[in-house]
Amino acid sequence: RDASTIPHEIKMVVGEDNRNQLYSLELQDFKSYRGKQTIGPFSKFTAIVGPNGSGKSNLMDAICFVLGEKANNMRVRKLTDLIHGAPIGKPVASKCHVSMNFIDINGKHRIYTRRVVHGGCEYSIDNGTVTVQQYNQAMEELKIFIKAKNFLVYQGQVEQIAMKNPKERTAMFEEISRSVDFANEYERLKAEMLKAENEAQNNMNKRRGIAAEKKEARMEREEAEKYQQLKEELSNKQCLHTLMELFEVERLIKQTEEELEDKQENLNVLVEARKKAEDEQTEKHKDVKKHQKELNKLEKAAAEKEKEVATKKPQWMQINEEMKHQAKKVEQAVKILAAAKKMEERQTHALKELQEQEKRKKKEKEELKKQLEEEGDSQNLNLSQDQIDEYIRLKKQASGRSGAIDMELQREMKDNEEDRNRISFEEKKLESMKTQKKMKEDEKSKKETQLSTIDDQIAHTEESIKVAENDAKNADTEVRKAKSEMDKMENQLKDITVRLQDAQGDTVEGEREKKKKEAIDNLMRVFPDKVHGRLLDLCTPSHKRFHLAVTKLLQKHMNSIVCDTDTTAREAIAYLKEQRYSTETFLPLSVLDVQPINERLRSLKKPHGVKLLYDVIQCPNNTVKKAVQYACGNALVVEDAEGARYLAYGEAGERHKAVALDGTLFNPSGLISGGGTDLKRSAKRWDDVAVKKLKGERTDLIEKITTIRKTRMKEMDIEIKNSALAGLRNRVKYMQRDKEIWARDTIPNLVTALELMQAEIDTIGVRIDEIKGRVESRNKKIAKLEKDSAVVNDEVFAEFCERIGVADIREYENRDMKFHQEMKAKMLEFDNELDRIKNEIAYMQADEKKGRAGSEEDKLKALERAANVKKKEEAKLKKALEGLEEDLSEIQMKIKAKRVDVEEVESELGEFKKTANAASREVTQAEKAMAAHENAISRRLGERHRLLRDAKINQIAVPLSAGSMSDVDAEEEDDDDGEGTSNGDKNATQVTQEQLRREKKIKINYRGLPEDFLELTNSNEVRKRLERLAKEIVEAQEHLGKVQAPNMKAGDRLDSVKDSEEKVNAQFENARKKAKKVRTAFEKIKTDRYRRFQGCFEPVAQKIDEIYKQLSRDPSAQAFLGPDNTEEPYLEGIQYNCIAPGKRFRPMDNLSGGEKTVAALALLFAMHARNPSPFFVLDEIDAALDNTNIGKVASYIVDSARANMQLIVISLKEEFYNKADGLVGIHPIPANCTVSGVLTVDLTPFKASGHDHSMMDTTHAQ
């Protein structure tokens, strides 16, 4: 709007100095401003003042609201809370608004309005509705930025601005400079640039790698061609050698098989006879197992019954002890009841006597009353009616004359009567208290007697407890020790059982293994200290991971028997033959040719983990270490096959026999054999040795546990003793509790009661003496009053007394009165006696002991009922326990009978075993007769299998006319060089026969052999030809071993590398172009962001020192604003430091509150000077300033700032706001809800005239 359209009350002349500033505000029901209120016009320097709580901050919220601030920054949760009265739930309207009258740069008035309507906001500019985006854009055109808050400083935020950290200060400059608008695009392009450059670098590296790989592939192809030629020559020689060996082996097999057929028929007959004997033995063995199973079942049932007995017996003992304790309680209750009844009888008798005495007294009282009445009638004066009337008249006349005396006399006599009654009451009470005291003393004496007796009972019981505790402790120690040992042994047994299960050591041993075990046991028994045992049992690998490697190298000697000399070996062999045991191999220590250990091999570092095989074998018996060394030699063990290959065909011509952990063996001769299923099965024999030891340990533990279990049976006795001990302890506890109650409560309470009674008795005596003293004093006064009254009566009754013949009127009255007084005294005596008797009767009837006999009788009945219940429970448990013990005894008898049966069938089984053993010996003799032929065939077949297997492993192309090399199992079989015989187990034999059966299908084509070799029949000639060819093969292998094996696919690799090179070159070019494009875009956005940021920051940094000096009013003050990163300042912090006048440099957080405020204001004014809003609102910036700093800040604002900006300041200090051009006063108006009133005053005229501010007129803005 133009100025002409502005309301009259706010019109003003717009000059150059008044342009681009806030002119006035219009508030309608906003917060504490009820109704419509216009605040303004605002001067260049306007101060808002008023008491706390009047609504000054609400005015600042109104300014923020109209400029577009969010509701939560105006101390409300929602917009409707801004309506007046809403905070107390009574809004005065459904909407509110704030309008800002702003004079633009052209001198026009612009009205900006923001309304709260229906919980939302409406915006308008010059009464035209706009969107929030248009409204915010209009504010930014006025250089008012809501996010940056460049137009206001909230209360308490001045010091916070100074204390911002460098990063926060950078963020503030980014908001003000609007360089933050480039931040997202900057980060995005930077990330893309880094990614593109990384891709370009990676492609460059790939390009270089491909070039090197291409050169390497070309060289590899040349090496591969040369190596392939050498390899083919070696392969041809190896194939010829293998064919020669196979031809010789097959010739010998065929010859031996023909000789074996004749001996097989005889063996078949003997085997059938042995089978029949073994079947009979098996049936009897089943019968033994059946009986043993029944025995185990009975033993299990016995154990369960023992467990039930062990459970029931402590229960019975506990009930039995409780029953005994209940019986003692009943016995004690009977005694207490008898005592209570005796006391009740005494009390009943005493009560009856008192009641009889009461009746007699009542009767005597009636007789006395009757007698006194008769005497009164006989002593009456027979006066006439006239005389009586005259007596009454004269009595009244005398009373009138002596009225005062008589009234005092009557009063004294009445008081005397009351005191006599008090004396009578107190005497009765005294008598009752003495009786009660006597009874309490009796009760106290009785409790003291019981207290002295209970100590003896406690001492006696505690002595019994000590004896019982000692017995229980000894028994418990013994059982605990047994239990501890048993737990330990059971844990060991459990561990051994688990280990046996893991090792599968509980499998039944075959007959062959039993025979071999029996053979070595007998040898060690017959030749003690000479035969040491099998090598397998005398040493073990140091770790399980060495099992396969050790088994591979020791395989042919694992079952060999170690003895001291060759003489012992020959004698042992003779003994085995005599006993018809199978053939065994012996290692006599005295004649073994042992290869010395090569110490240099122990220091080998390459390959990793290499060790002498001898060093990984543990041998507890030093005597047999020579045999282990003989079997191992200087063989090496290494982690993997590559390491073993390196040792066998290694550097500088050194070759060593080496084996990998997986069982792969590399011989220096070039022969390689791998680990297989049979090797793993053989390696398990180390576990079998451990299993045998574990089984022995398990048997010993079971025997020990059985012995200890008998000791643990005493646990039941301990339970019984502990139950009895608990009963004794409970008895002591109850007696000590009674003793404690009597000593702590009962007896002290009785003593206290006696003391109170005695004090009451003493008090009653004192009261009686006091009353008697008053009565005696009053009697003297009564006598004097009676004498004065008598003088008056004598004068009045003188004539009357003469007529009736008495000396004076008192003679007549005293005679009658004396009679009545005597009568009254006698009757009072009877009444007192009757009251005493009634009190004693009432006390005895009310005594707590009256019903005690009944109560004790009820207790006795309850205890008897409880005792009967316990008795029934005890009888029931006892009966059950006896039944269990009878069942247990019966089962134990059955166990004894069954054990006899088991022994009988085991004896019969022994006979069957003898028969079966005899048949087995006959079969053994037949087997020995053909053993030579079988062994020869087995060796030849094994040799053929070995040759085929080695050919397959070494990839030797053996020519075949039938079959396939896939039928050859490449896994390692047991080595057998003919030294002794040591057949494998049954499963191993089956597997070997299956392999041989498959290999029979293989028919070898020998047409490639020389004709002269096919005609040879002499084995020596054949061996010489083979040795010559083997030597040529070794020389070829050595030559080939010196040549490093090339990559045989080098040609394919070279083609692949060329293809990859083309792809990588294309990728590199694409990545390079992309990186260049992204970097160009990034550099542009980086430059734009830097220019915008520096365009704001540089002027502020240059101006701040000048402003700080002006604010401090001292040229020595210094302020410095500098970025941590000069190239890209918006990425890191901005440092702000000030040196106060006359002080050394200190960090900002060490400055005082006032110094921080001045520093913050310097920064605010410097920033505002660079990016000024049309007005600057400051809320209580003087709060932390002292008077000196207030003066400096105010002077700066007046001298410098006011010329460049409009300032609106909320202030509480007069030293500050008295410098303003105008004041807006906010004051509270009393109401249910806070209501703010507004006063405005223009101070300019007073500054010009120099008038006192206190005389300024004020106007109230409605």
From TrEMBL:
It is found in: Chromosome; Nucleus. Residues 820-936, 1019-1074 form a coiled coil. The keyword Protein biosynthesis does not apply. Residues 529-648 form the SMC hinge domain. Residues 968-979 have a biased composition (Acidic residues). Its main location: nucleus. GO terms for molecular function: ATP binding; ATP hydrolysis activity; DNA binding. Residues 353-373, 408-449 have a biased composition (Basic and acidic residues). Keywords: Cell cycle, Cell division, Chromosome, Coiled coil, Mitosis, Nucleus. Residues 353-452, 962-996 are annotated as: Disordered. One of its GO terms (biological process) is cell division. Residues 982-994 have a biased composition (Polar residues). GO terms for cellular component: cohesin complex; nucleus. Belongs to the SMC family. SMC1 subfamily. This is SMC hinge domain-containing protein. It comes from Pristionchus mayeri.
